[in-house]
Request: fold
Amino acid sequence: MTRMRPTFRRLVASTAAAGMLVLAGCSAPTNPDGSSDGTTLVVATSDEPDALNPVLNYGVDGAALIFDGLVSRDGDNRLVPGLAATLPTVSADGRTVTAKLRDGVLFHDGTALTAQDVVFTYQAVLDPKVDSTLRSDLDMVESVTAPDQATVVFRLRHPYAPFLQRLTLGIVPSKLLSGQDVNTAGFNRKPVGTGPYAVESWTPGDRLVLTANERYFAGRPANNRVVVAFVADDNVRAQRMRAGEFDAAELPPKLAAAFDEDTTYRVQRVPTADYRGVMLPAGNPVLADPAVRRALSLAVDRSAMVSGILGGAGEPAFGPIPPTSEFVDPSVVGAPTADATAAAALLDAAGWKPGPGGVRARDGRPARFTLMYPAGDTLRKDLALAVTADAKKIGIEVTPAGLTWDAIDPRMKSDALLMGYGTPYDPDFVSYKLFGSTFAGQGYFNPGSYRSEVVDRALQNGRDQIDPALRKAAYAQFQQQLAADVPWLFLTYLRHTYVLKSSVRGVTPRVEAHEHGVANSIWWNIDTWTRS
Amino acid sequence: MTRSGRLAGAGAVVRRRLLVAVPVLAATSIGMFALGAASPVDPAKQYAGAAAFTATEENLAQIRANWGVDDPLPVQYLRWIGNLVQGDLGWSTSRHEPVASVLAARAGWTLLLIGVSLALVLAASLLLGALAAYRRGGLFDRALRTAAYAVQSMPVFWLGLAAIAVFALALGWLPAGGLTDVTATSTSWGDVAHHLILPVGVLAVSQAPWFVLFVRDAVAESMRDDHVLAARARGLPGRTVLFGHALRTALLPFLTLVGTHLPELVGGAVLVETVFSLPGLGAVTVAAAMGSDFPLLAAITLVTTAVVLAANLATDLAYAAADPRVRLDG
Reply:
């Protein structure tokens, strides 16, 4: 009996000791902002890459911090030479693209960049054994060769006007990867590039530590280290930003707004090409009527969505080409507020008469349809509910349905869907497949089977023509035809919201694509950032 | 009877349990793959992320073929088992790295979090529960029970955010998250310990009420047992009666219940890891489930099952050590 007593006495003693340790931990001086020396910058994002390899889709649109492409983009998203000495040249037939490499560029491990590295990178993307989704974007490449150490020649299957926009892909050193399985190479965890920063360490789920590349061809970064903290939860990221741990963090609009009043922080709302809209399928008997689609476009209150749902961090959308693009056609811009009277008049004229329960009907068919949205996406849910409420005012009954993508996929031909897309770089990139009739009903490419000869011809011209003026005319026609046909109900462009410490200098936001994380965020030029 | 005598049959029990563990683990992993067959999620689309909307079906099909995820389920399972016996846990499609390295990098932190929290909960609940029971209905007892019920009703997630708001933002004593200082150049134990105080504290506090209330009730019950009353009547000091007689009797059912409560602790750890942005198994488990990453899910399930089996075994051995009436070699 007495044997147990010392055990418990020890237990009590060790508990007390543990308590003392905890107290000691509490009273130890803490310095959450260890970055105050001004040479380390800390940024936080939710979006952690699963491999740091451009071939495996890391930072393919450039600004990849660790890597450089043949070309890169400036603050206005204009192409400028990257690893290429000058912008690559395109032959008269549009099918041969030649890039001359910059002299004296070194990888982080000290080896020199050669044309062979470029060839290896692109061939790896095109290799079916490699798990790269970028292959779909480079399907026009027939071959890539290196006639000498400093020249790369791309041969295309067909002329492709925006091809140079695809050359932002980061270049990897062939020496470290050739002969290996690119999918499983250790390189993907500890990569070597030519970029402004080299990887010091990467703890998945925690942080990525980068150190300045002393020999960066465009000049050594203005700071010594960059830490990218991966914090998946929005609330947690906001609290750690508030605790002073980060110099910059991406936050949802409503959480970012809480920092507006505080002068130690600055909130940046960066324009994007990322739009949200409702895909209206041609296979739906109600939505097949252009009058219904046009009435819906008149009835939705886009400015209320921007101010209410997006907390002001957005713009009304009227087409798939963002207002910041040089290809935008201002004539398609409509009224940001709802015009229920005009919408009702359209429906009346088309024979949709008010029926029982306030729902219009024509030939015994009630004006109702289902609007699907991905269940986990609260923004799309809010937008779907707003569309439902606006449609009700003009006698159209919408049934919102939150579903998983697997449940959505088979229904896209006949049920409306809240979708999001957008890239600021070239109007061809997404729209060619999204609105071209050859892609009708092919998965997420043109799921609603929209068919218009005018749009098909305009999209093809935009891709074939090298002359910027001709391209601009083609895309103007494309936008006007979409505005007339309304195959999509464009709702809003989003703004990405970031909170930064006021002391950070050198921040120059540029129009962002949908995808942004370690690469291509507001910190696209973090190598020029300093702290005052 | 000596202690070694009590644990005499331990070796046989361990061997027997190991034999049972094999079919249990096999059944768990088959169940994992069967669940996978029922899931409509396409791992290639999950892997592609936003690029799934711009990638061609041919492109995605090639990736699926590279992974062999379109093969019939029995084929996938046999391949997985074949690799497993060779020590290869397979390829995680959601993290795009070997499952073994995902586990190696993360399991340690989760086990550390759970282990330290459990030790803290056990020590604190035995001490506090016994003290509360000693003066049942007294001020300390009432305060402890009120606190326990209050904490019990708080979601772990909320408790974590509240702890950050108080200790990291308002008082500035402790870091708000992460495993190390975000600018640290290396992973030092002191730094990690400093960062684990809040998560361990929150997990322990959130799990403690159940244990504290149990100990308190059990000890209060045994305070009325004959042998405890007899000890008091003999004039033994209160401390000896409480810890030597009453708590000891109450401890027996408690040990078994610790084993059964372990899964709840694991669930709490997943949430705590999310709130404090710790690179444990929590976040990858969720990602693996969302992305139909069966090799990773199967491995995590196997590890968790093995830990629970081991915990049950340890509980039974502890039971035998604590109760002379229980014999392992019986």
About this structure: Residues 1-37 of chain A have pLDDT under 50 and may be disordered. The first strand of chain A starts at residue 40 and ends at 45. DSSP finds 13 helices and 22 strands in chain A. The two ends of chain A are 69 Å apart (CA to CA).
